[in-house]
Design a protein that fits this description.
mainly alpha, single chain
Amino acid sequence: MTFIDNRGIKSNDIFQAADFPMMINELAAIKKEIADEPGYFRADIIISYLKDHCIKNDWIKANPELTKLITSGTFTTGQIESVFQRCRNYKIFLDDFENYIRMQMQI
């Protein structure tokens, strides 16, 4: 059983990666494993799938290898998905979190 960080998120919170060390570990593992995959829509695919479990068809066509890896359950993503669930209604936090993922996925 995986422990999910249940830190509460409030409407005026800003995302601070240091508050989510297990999420950082999950992203680092994903980044390491996808380093050799094409970069087309890399962050968009990861964010979209882990946030809403959907990916645009154009992104799938542009990067089918990454899409397969992300959707196959290859990676542990419970922490990332948990943060997305808890910040869904907090735009500033959500935007900061997505920007953090985009920065981390630059290889």
